[in-house]
Prior knowledge:
Transcription Regulator spoIIAA; disordered N terminus
Amino acid sequence: xxEKQIPGLITSSRHEGNAAIVAIRGEIDLxxxxxxxxxxxxxxxxxxxxxxxxxxxxxxxxxxxxxVFVEGLQKLxxxxxxxYLTNLQPRVKGLLEIARLDTIFVVCADEASAxxxxxx
Length: 120
């Protein structure tokens, strides 16, 4: 397991088994979601079955962020994979619930519970 430090929105990323764990910081909007998309999709090379997105430091995101997450999910579903969202801030959690996206992503309290769920 090696951890990669990345300047900007993605603060770190690492692989544990067939899971990629990506920590994101800051507001995700139309201006910075393309960079996040590129980094996130770079982990989905076919060997990754679970993408765990740690959103602990994300106080806000708009529909462009959701579009990136959905694109990643579509790519993972082709190989039977899932996206796990962890450490949701109240505003982000509310957005996902209103859009009913909390039913298509696996929402977990933290990285450890997401890793445990992904291992099942």
